Amino acid sequence: xxxxxxxxxxxERFAQGLTYDGFITAIDRNQQRFQENYDGxxxxxxxxxxxxxxxxxxxxxxxxxxxxxPWCPDVFRGAPVFARMAEATGxxxxxxxxxxxxxxxxxxxxxxxxxxxxxxxxxxxxEYLGHWIERPELAxxxxxxxxxxxxxxxxxxDMTEEERAAAREENIAFQNGPVWGNWRQETIREVTGMLxxxxxx
Length: 201
Hints:
By secondary structure, the protein is an alpha+beta fold. The protein has a domain at about 10-135 and about 195-200: Glutaredoxin (3-Layer(aba) Sandwich), CATH 3.40.30. About 55% of the residues lie in helices and about 10% in strands. The chain is built from 9 helices and 4 strands; from the N terminus they run H-H-H-H-E-H-E-H-E-E-H-H-H. The protein has helices at about 10-15, 20-25, 30-40, 45-55, 75-90, 100-105, 135-155, 160-175, 180-200, and strands at about 65-70, 90-95, 120, 130-135. The chain has a 4-stranded mixed beta sheet, covered by helices on one side. Helix 3 packs across helix 5 (about 75-90) and helix 4 runs parallel beside helix 9 (about 180-200). It is globular and about 60 Å long. The protein starts with 10 loop residues before the first helix and ends with a helix.
């Protein structure tokens, strides 16, 4: 967790963000993928209780800023997780398009990259608590071994249309499978741990 001294996200800026439903209405692609990931995500009663107990602390989390774009698989997997977390706890979520909010993503860059999604947590008074970027560490460890062969096949210069279609179907099947689902759940666990450290859980 990187400590930020001052955020471009003021209370006024936060209020200008989209609700999750507003974001889904505004996007021009992948609505079905967002819905599938939303439907496939549950916040367990135990995880919800942990988060709510953190919210009750003096510097507890109360607001989430989510930065993303609808073309990104990490976003259509991750954004619904934060929507579910907000619903389960009562945290207030606002969504911002990365490419329309360059000053915001600049504050939360992943080194040289504008990686998304970014979820930033604040207290009710907009005091920064911490932020989470792109995907859980578990996914970072697993992604190359699991997806590398698939992407290598997609990059074959002499690939037939049938082979390309089969590789795309394999990718979609992976996104609908248990590993992808576990990454969603790991996001909840990882974010909860980050907030416990920030708030003192």
